[in-house]
Design a protein that fits this description.
The structure is a single chain. This protein is an alpha/beta fold. It contains 25 helices and 31 strands. It is globular, with a radius of gyration of 33 Å.
């Protein structure tokens, strides 16, 4: 890799035993990419010091070599040393060099100490920003931990661009949150435009890189930052080419003329800032152009070279940005990591399960476990009885448990300075008796223990936000007993529990006369069921008619306070049981036109209605949203569930569309999916605009059976691709086979010692057969795809 990198260095690894071939290969490749010097460990037939070869690390065998400085102490054997010449630059614990990415990242991080500044606070970032105003731009990146693939990508970019831009790195989530970043669980890179800022009181404009942090993506992003923000041209747009097209990004031409030049240039600059890193923006002068442009055209869109340009009429900046974002598809640039798959063990770094792979990748990440209390068989009862507690039951060997443990610790971080419940955890792998006693039969499980009540199990998504909502809403009893009309008004307005409003869509108040005992019991049961999800309250005083008359509610009734619209809706509850009340409350808080995600899709599928889905590759176009909401308001979509899916937030949407159309169609696209009866999929005509009139006419044709479906979804169950292993049956089968093969001479008792030996042999044989069975099962599992591929290839040849 060419660039302004540091001088070559040497990487020395003391060892009391020869390193594994795989380890040496990885270290060699990593050191080669860092311009380090390789010291090859001595072969048995070599004498004297280690042989040096330019381009890699050294492994020193401390048993055979006189290297007392690095082999004298046991702790030194767990370190790697980085040299420049004879100068020791850095020591690394060997457990931090766990793969090629970690080695490259750590070595470059040590060598590029001037080019990459590590910071931990917002004050550090502001000081760095002020110091570079008018001098240089900043590439600010956040990675979850050092040694990750994203950290390596940032360091390799700094190796190339470190003398041009100041690279700043952090691993602090709080710092990322403080600058207003979203999706903080992912790595981020911001470009701070500080070089053009001359006023120290003015903030540097920031541009977020929206692609995943890979070396090539960062290179592409920085190249777009180096390109001119706005370029004026006076030639045929079809012939114009810029660096953006070379990088696979589209061009946007803002059409101008002499009379409106100043206003058009300001508009073009606004558009350029909004699309920076996504597209190139040019100002096209119509007056000096020999090519004819349609009279009303004010925007020209060019997707790529040798593709006809599009002539558009867009009178709003948001419409221009939306059109570009919805019509560009940048394929993620994948790093060429095939070289890292070693022949000795092709599966050593990649797990076949996505959750297991995530846990394996983050295995070196240090979690602040001290923020939660670890419970044992001796401390469980005393701790839980002493205070209201949240207990996480997990298994240290299970991938889902370890993945959720990270979310659990994130909750503990958010609640660090908040006087809430005590967060505790039990590792069922160590304390199986405790977990069995508390009816834990699967992992992970979260239970809430409060004094005087039964434990409440958490049934939400295994994520930080949902668990945090559950804990915060359980700070109050549900339903809350309201005792006066004034308190009820404060409850409905949100004043009573203002600090909990962000965790709930709005409070629910049940109105009952004092004599409605059964109805109150049903509502109380529903409130207990919904605790942790919704704030519920109950009012059954003598003056309940004051509220009933004010809100036109017939007793018994529900009052739902919608804080977004500021409205209070009444729902009658006559002859309604607890389970019906639960469903009423759940349905009442569903969004009218929601964005479908992996998390909320099951909720909307339970409505048992066909889905009217608007697929969009980015934010939804306002006029489309307005058309659909108007039809919802006019009750034309009561038989459907209208929703939209953002492919950028939910990439699985691309696979869904490909299943419908075979190839990815142009977006935005509107479809009706009848999942619950027939599985037909209908597509709104692509040559029609999504307007109220066109959409209503199309829906009437659907209802009359005049539209043809594009595909029918198969009525198949979602099952695992391979059957689960029944280990107990396998052990019993192995044991029974062994017993059947035993001869009669082994059935005689010849003494206690002989009997013991026989039992030992039996167990050894069983273990051996079980191991062989598992080995065969593993081979079948790992080679099933290869055999299927061979069979498929043979069929194609035939």
């Amino acid at each position: 890799m060419a660039g302004s990198g540091p001088a070559s260095a040497e990487l020395l690894l003391p060892s009391i035993q020869p390193l594994h071939t795989l380890q040496l290969r990885r270290i060699y490749r990593a050191a080669t990419s860092c311009d380090a010097t390789l010291l090859v460990p001595p072969r048995p037939y070599l004498r004297g010091p280690a042989h040096r070869t330019k381009g890699g690390p050294a492994a020193v065998n401390c048993v055979k070599e006189e290297t007392s400085r690095y082999c004298g102490k046991e702790k030194d054997l767990m370190k790697a040393y980085l040299f420049r010449g004879n100068v020791l630059l850095r020591e690394f614990p060997t457990d931090t060099l766990f793969d090629v990415n970690a080695i490259v990242a750590h070595v470059l991080f040590a060598l590029l100490f001037n080019e990459v500044k590590y910071i931990t606070t917002l004050e550090d970032l502001q000081n760095m920003e002020n110091a570079l105003k008018g001098k240089a731009d900043i590439a600010f990146s956040y990675v979850r931990a050092v040694g990750t693939p994203e950290h390596r990508a940032v360091m390799e970019a700094a190796f190339v661009y470190g003398t041009t831009y100041q690279f700043v790195l952090t691993t602090e989530i709080a710092l990322l949150e403080s600058i207003g970043a979203k999706d903080i669980e992912y790595a981020h890179l911001y470009f701070f435009h500080c070089k053009v800022v001359l006023d120290l009181t003015q903030l540097c404009r920031r541009t977020l890189m929206e692609q995943p942090l890979t070396t090539l993506n960062i290179h592409q992003f920085i190249k777009t930052m180096e390109a001119p923000l706005l370029t004026e041209v006076a030639e045929d747009p079809q012939q114009v080419s810029t660096v953006h097209l070379q990088l696979g990004l589209p061009l946007v031409f803002i059409v101008s003329q002499q009379a409106t030049y100043e206003a058009d240039r300001r508009t073009a600059e606004w558009v350029a800032w909004r699309l920076l890193g996504k597209a190139g923006v040019l100002l096209l002068m119509r007056d000096s152009l020999a090519v004819d442009i349609p009279q009303h055209t004010n925007v020209i869109f060019k997707r790529e070279e040798r593709v006809p340009v599009e002539f558009l009429v867009l009178h709003d900046i948001d419409l221009i940005v939306s059109h570009v974002e919805n019509n560009m598809h940048i394929e993620e640039i994948q790093e060429g990591e095939d070289e890292d798959h070693d022949m000795e063990d092709p599966d050593i770094d990649i797990q076949d399960d996505e959750v297991a792979e995530t846990v394996h990748r983050d295995r070196k990440r240090q979690l602040p476990l001290e923020l939660t209390v670890e419970l044992t068989e001796e401390t469980f009862n005393a701790t839980v009885m002493a205070s209201d507690s949240i207990v996480l039951f997990y298994a240290g060997w299970q991938a889902v448990s370890m993945a959720f443990l990270q979310s659990y610790i994130d909750v503990a971080i958010k609640l660090k300075d908040t006087p809430t419940m005590l967060l505790t955890r039990v590792n069922c792998a160590d304390w199986s008796g405790v977990c069995t006693k508390h009816n834990v039969t699967e992992f992970p499980v979260v239970k809430m223990y409060k004094e005087g009540g039964n434990p409440v199990s958490y049934a939400g998504m295994l994520g930080t936000e949902d668990l945090l909502k559950f804990i915060q809403l359980n700070r109050i009893s549900c339903p809350v007993n309201i005792t006066s009309v004034q308190e009820a008004e404060e409850y409905l307005s949100g004043e009573l529990y203002q600090d909990l409003l962000s965790y709930s869509r709005g409070p629910v108040l049940g109105l009952f006369s004092p004599t409605m005992t059964t109805a109150k019991e049903d509502f109380t049961e529903a409130g207990n069921y919904l605790r942790g999800c919704v704030i519920t309250g109950i009012y059954s005083e003598e003056d309940v008619l004051i509220l009933s008359n004010k809100y036109a509610a017939t007793l018994p009734a529900l009052l739902l306070a919608r804080h977004k619209g500021g409205k209070i809706e009444s729902i009658p509850l006559a002859n309604t049981h607890a389970e019906d009340i639960v469903q009423i409350i759940k349905n009442a808080f569903l969004e009218t036109f929601p964005e479908i995600t992996v998390e909320n899709l099951p909720t909307y599928l339970r409505l048992q209605k066909p889905l009217l889905i608007l697929f969009s590759d980015g934010s939804i176009i306002p006029q489309y949203k307005k058309a659909i909401l108007t039809l919802v308001k006019e009750k034309h979509l009561d038989s459907l569930t209208p929703c939209w899916l953002n492919l950028k937030n939910t990439p699985v949407g691309r696979g869904i569309l490909q299943a419908y159309f075979d190839t990815l169609p142009p977006l935005p696209l509107l479809v009706v999916v009848n999942l619950h009866s027939g599985g037909q999929v209908f597509a709104f005509p692509s040559d029609q605009a999504i307007s109220e009139q066109n959409l209503l006419l199309w829906l009437k044709k659907l209802e009359a059976g005049l539209e043809s479906h594009i595909t029918i979804l198969p009525a198949q169950e979602w099952k695992p691709p391979l059957p689960a292993y029944d280990f107990l049956s396998m052990m019993e089968a192995a044991a029974s086979r062994h017993s059947a093969r035993k001869g009669p001479e082994y059935m005689k008792e010849t003494g206690v010692q002989e009997s013991d030996e026989e039992q030992h042999e039996d167990k050894s044989a069983i273990r051996k057969e079980l191991t062989e069975t598992l080995r065969i099962k593993h081979w079948n599992r790992s080679n099933w795809f290869k055999e299927a591929e061979k069979s498929s290839r043979h069929d194609k040849e035939l």
